[in-house]
Amino acid sequence: EDDPAYKAHQNVEDMIPQQRTIYMLYRTYNTSRNYDCQYIKFGTKNGLTYPETILGYRVPTKTHSETTTVTITVKITPYSRPKDGSPTPRSTPNTLVYTKVSEDESQENTPHDYYLIYADTNKCAVMRDPQRDRGYGCEMFVSDPSSQPSQTCKTMYTSSCGNVKNTVWKDDCNKAIQEEEEIDWGDD
């Protein structure tokens, strides 16, 4: 996320319309609860926000997934590696700001920044979760849960995040989402 050479692939406002729903395939970290079947379904853009964005997940003790609705804000974060002693500015948003579903007792229920390391059009995105792995947590998302990320996304994940791949999207996740959609939660 700190290499200006990849700026064309680090614009979250380009990524979102091309990947309206993204599914977390794997990540570098584990949590105390290890929710699986995680996805983000972006709401309709309103200025610098995406209200009505749905975060989906499954608690390991359940067969169906659950959802929560959040507002995601996009913002520009400068490159952290200084060039000539000062931060290199960006011209496009590279960061999502939102409150994630808490999988740990220790995780605060406050919004945090999530940086786009690399997005491959209509295929995949590598995101940094700086609240994990001492600032180096990473997540691999795909736009189709039955597909694999492109070779470029895989390479960017490995070079930016290492080789750890804790599986989040499991074989029965599509079924878990379908079951959740069929439940009458009584909130109509």
Automatic annotation (TrEMBL):
It comes from Ixodes ricinus. This is Putative secreted histamine binding protein of 19.7 kDa. GO terms for molecular function: amine binding. One of its GO terms (biological process) is symbiont-mediated perturbation of host defenses.
